Structures are given as structure tokens and as C-alpha cells.
Amino acid sequence: MYYTVGEMAKKLEIAPSTLRYYDKEGLLPFVERSEGGIRRFQESDFEWLALIGCLKKTGMSIKDIKSFVDLCVEGDASIGRRLELVRKQKQAVLRQIEQLKETLKVLDYKCWYYEEAQKAGTCAVHGKAAGALL
């Protein structure tokens, strides 16, 4: 069974233009085309596209995703380089998680701060606490 760009985009919960962009950037060398040049996605393409979406969500650049796809197409000789790219991106995600944890701490504090201020009817309840005017 083949899927159109629109059908596959719906299945992936992304815009059809995203798939067209990925194709234009060379991320979809595995996608077949009809005699008329229409992209024809197969069920097996879903896993590739989901991986590309995952890498994109991690903040990996299109250039690096293309490198990864090219290495995959290259075959087993590139396993080490693929592993290196994935490990590098994993470290970037772990850094993002740590940054988000710090951001969450600030937001937790602000929630407490404004809950207390709301109970008191004023931010002045906190006196000269850091952020009392915010």
C-alpha cells in the first residue's frame, strides 16, 4: 500500500510541507516516486520518518540529520559514525534536560510566590524577597 504526502503527513501528525521540505533537503532517499514524479510512501517509510522527526525534536540540525541518513544508506561500514552522531545528540538532549530542570525550579518558585501573593491579595507579602516586584 502506498501513501500520498498528505496521508503520510497525517499519519506522522506533521504538515505535508514538512515532508516536502525533508525531501528537498535530501532526507528521504528511500521514498519511491511514480512515473509522474509523485512521492509514494510505504508503510516501511514510516519508521524512517519517525526517526527523522525524533532527531529533529532533539534539536539536531537538518544538515546533521542528512549526514545521519546518508550514513544509514551507506550501510554497515558507517555504524561507528552513526553511533558517534547519536551519542553526541544524546549529550545535547541531556544538557537540555538539565536546563529545563533549572527552568522548572524557577517556575515552581514563581507558582508558590504568586499563590502566596494571591492569598494575601498583594505581592508585598513577600517583602523584599528576590523577585518581589515581578
Topology of this protein?
Blueprint: E1 2-3, H1 5-12, H2 16-24, E2 32-33, E3 39-42, H3 45-57, H4 62-74, H5 79-120
Antiparallel strand pairs: 1-3, 2-3
Helix pairs in contact: 1-2, 4-5
Task: Outline the structure in words.
By secondary structure, the protein is mainly alpha-helical. The chain has helices spanning 5-12, 16-24, 45-57, 62-74, 79-120; strands at residues 2-3, 32-33, 39-42. It has a three-stranded antiparallel sheet with strand order 1-3-2. Strand 2 and strand 3 form a beta hairpin. Helix 1 (5-12) crosses helix 2 (16-24) and helix 4 runs antiparallel to helix 5. The longest helix is centred in the C-terminal third of the chain and has 42 residues, at 79-120.
